[in-house]
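Deliverable D4.2, example record:
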Amino acid sequence: MRSGAQRDVAAHPRAARGALTPSDAAEDLGLAALTLADGVVAERADAAALGLRAVIRIALARRPARVVHGVAVPFDEIDPARVDRRLLADGIADATAARCADPTSPAAIEAAIAVLYATAPDPARPDWTAIRTAHRALRRLDPSPARDLAATIADALAGDVDAIARLGRFATGEPAYVRRDAALALADLAWRAGDRDAAAARYRALVDTADADGWDPAIRALLSSRGTLRKARVHPGRTSDRRAPRR
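Output generated by the structure prediction step:
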């Protein structure tokens, strides 16, 4: 979750968002970003401003489902019932307006990706074809190490084995934030594949990075909880083994 831009107090009085009282510091920053984005849209409702506000609104709408009891929840495990539907609808409306204003705007494409994740009937199975196409368009229109990594992660999540190998190269390269995000993606992919021992080792290795870099405490909590899991083993005298809890 990572952008900025926000808001016209007269058009959006704070009282109208009483339901968005922040529950933690990260959410408070999100609301501050929304305030700034509202202001930018009030000044110029172009694709860049609308797309930015769409991404922020959708992230805030999903935050109750993405952070539960102080622990981050991966996108494929969220409970859609916890999503703020009104705020999500506002974000989708902004994304639609951004696409209409300029479908080639990187902000409009980022908003479209957010919508694809947020509206998937099954959070674990979004429209990977559309997501991969959008990420490749972003990489072409606005090339950067972050765009390249995001497109590679989308390929890997869609089942591209070669992309997983490319992630390994990102995880040992530069800049540091790309190396960190690639390492986290590899841990998540191992978890999704059911290789819990390999995933746990990767998550444990990331805990120190999270502490040093000041990551969102909810993500740090997820790393810590998954890093402590081990594959359950059968002990002598026992006839069955117990599965490690998902969380």
